[in-house]
Amino acid sequence: MSLGYLLNTYPVTSGTFIRREIHALEERGVPVTRYAVRRWDQELVDPADRAEQEATQYVLTGNAAGLGRALAAEFAANGAGVARAGRALRELATGVDGIVRPSAYLAEAAYLKQRTAADGVTHLHCHFSNNAPAVAMLCRLMGGPTYSFTAHGPDEFTDPESNRYDLKVEHAAFAVAISHYSKMQLMRWGGMQHRHKIHIARCGIDLSDFAPMGAPDSSNTFVCVGRLCPQKGQTLIPEAIAPLTRDYPDLKVVLIGDGETRGEIEGEVARLGLERHVELTGWASNAEVRTRIGQSRALLLPSFAEGLPIVIMEALAMERPALSTYIAGIPELLDERCGWIFPAGSVEHIRGAVRACLEATPRALAEKGKEGRRRVEARHDIRKLAETLEGLFAPCL
Question: Quick one: 250 and 261 in the same domain?
Fold first, then answer.
């Protein structure tokens, strides 16, 4: 009897925290079988992600014939289970546009039931509360393993009624929230009658990978890490820093990541003549991200929508202050004692926070850095997360 992890797409460049979580569980002696609905269609930068891809079994990618055979076999041998799943499928379909995609979940669930039985997996854990737990739920209703899921946000909570948290929480063994904000959303949309099933287990990092660096000597470089997309607010950065470059000619913001707003950001950089002050690197390996953070003055993340960004934990662990917005779970980690926090969507407030960080003395930066490290050690150690999850999984295994 063992544990499986089911993800929608895995591994992905922005999903390092899931890989770390799986590895931390395995270091505690809990073997994990990896499943994903589909393979990521972009190049993986980090060698550890490429190795993880080789260890993952894919339910949908390259497996259309296998899905058909699995569903036919379930209809023939497990009609009652398929009927139960079918009733839940109809309820799921009320939350989405059309029946085609949910119907595909049924075939995926049938294949997953047979695959987990062959692998001896008795419990599945999913990250994010969208497709993967829907498939796991249908698999369970067919007689497959129990399941649980971790909800992060922000996209999951954009249209919570369509996500059918009520169904997913009802049939789950339990649900995990990464913050009090996330727990509130699950309680609200999953149903207060299921609140005893919802547990907080904060995402973690391996602190040995993020050594404290002390205050930077003289760097006026800020690092922003994440997908380039509307939710992250990076398009406001050029306008925010432009006036500051007159007083701080060595001011620079390094954007690590890629995505749909890259062209818009590059356009703003060109319009404002900030080519020397804004660098877009594309995606980078975990090691390069750590190096960039270590060479920076602080992390800058002017997000409009988040869960609780892992990169804030990483920066604070390295004793680098963070500048970010007071949305979702961010204020549960970040405040003025370890960085700067400001309203989302405000160019003026981004500029004010960057200026305050530039004006801060080495001693003030060092104090914020030490407080940040202390908080991450207390709340976001990956070993503590693995211990918490192992305790939650134990009754299901």
Answer: yes
Give the domain extent around 288.
207-379
Residues 285 and 197 in one domain: no
Considering the domain architecture, whether residues 226 and 150 belong to the same structural domain is answered as: no
Residues 151 and 257 in one domain: no
Query: Residues 272, 160: one domain?
Result: no
Burial of 318 (0-12, 13-18, 19+ CB in 10 A): buried
Amino acid at 282: G
Per-residue pLDDT of the chain (397 residues; tens, 9 = 90+): 699 999 999 999 888 999 999 999 999 999 999 999 999 998 898 899 999 999 999 999 999 999 999 999 999 999 999 999 999 998 887 655 555 566 789 999 999 999 999 999 999 999 999 899 999 999 999 999 999 999 998 888 888 888 899 999 999 999 999 999 999 999 999 999 999 999 999 999 999 999 999 877 789 999 999 999 999 999 999 999 999 999 999 999 999 999 999 999 999 999 999 999 999 999 999 899 999 999 999 999 999 999 899 999 999 999 999 999 999 999 999 999 999 999 999 999 999 999 999 999 999 999 999 999 999 999 999 999 999 999 999 999 8
Whether residue 167 sits in one domain with residue 31: yes
Write the single-letter amino acid at 24: A
| DSSP one-letter string for 268-328 | HHHHHT-TTTEEEEE---HHHHHHHHHTSSEEEE--SS-S--HHHHHHHHTT--EEEE--T
* Domain count across the chain: 2
289 and 341 assigned to the same domain = yes
Same domain as 228, residue 280:
yes
